[in-house]
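To the structural biology subgroup,

Please find below the input and predicted structure for Phosphonate ABC transporter ATP-binding protein, which we are adding to the shared reference set this quarter. The sequence is reproduced verbatim from the submission form. If anyone notices a discrepancy with their own records, reply to this email rather than editing the shared folder directly, so we keep one authoritative version.
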Amino acid sequence: MIQPPAEQRVIRVSGLVKDFPNGTRALSGVDLDVSAGETVVLLGANGSGKSTLQKCLTKLISPTAGSVEVLGTEVTTAGKREITALRRDVGVVFQKINLVRELSVLTNVIHGSLGRARSPRNWFASTARSEQREQAMEALERVGLSAVAQRRAEQLSGGQQQRVAIARMLMQRPQIVLADEPVAALDPRAGRAVMDLLWEVTEEQGLTLICTLHQLELARAYGHRVVALRNGQVEMDTVMSQVADEQLEGLYTEEAEHEDYAAAH
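Predicted structure (tokenized):
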């Protein structure tokens, strides 16, 4: 396991366990340390615990046992006010893009500022302060979409909508970014463009990024450090250059065998 120096560490997960009411153990003693500015690709078959781990980092899911520390906050014992403050510093890019489709692109990006500027004026671009509008336009310029700021979000392609979601995340001014299968719903070309953009903006701003991926070719192309989960445990934590293709493919062997069995029965 890769262990960054303590003074650089922004995420520390120790002995993390999550049991769901139906008896499923999603995480079984996960340990993970991540340093400031680091990029981590999180891999694993469906049901390996990737999304559960990400959600435990901001207490969207409460763990059963173990500890989670993010940006100096002990998440597992933190109260509502502390968690709210932490979530302002953690941006999220989802597989499901979660834009307000009927509102303008500009308004959607301005919504990224609501955690630090909770005025009702920021619910719409037409009533937002000029400072928020200018910052949102800068974020749209960075993702190459300033020309469509006044269009409704639903009028954009899937790739464009995900770029708007990245602009909204930048508007939040986070220190950490959690990306959960951010290109799973996109065609390969649009997916590559979004991955390029996500990696570029996090590097430019020195953000810490944990990105869950399912596509091995993207993991190989973009990952430096790879953390792989299997059955709720850390199977691998190393640099991508030291991982053979057979090792990556092996992470999904059981999933494929299970799907073949289910199809046959």
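Summary notes: Residues 188-204 form the longest helix (17 residues). Residues 99-173 form one domain.

Regards,
Lab coordination
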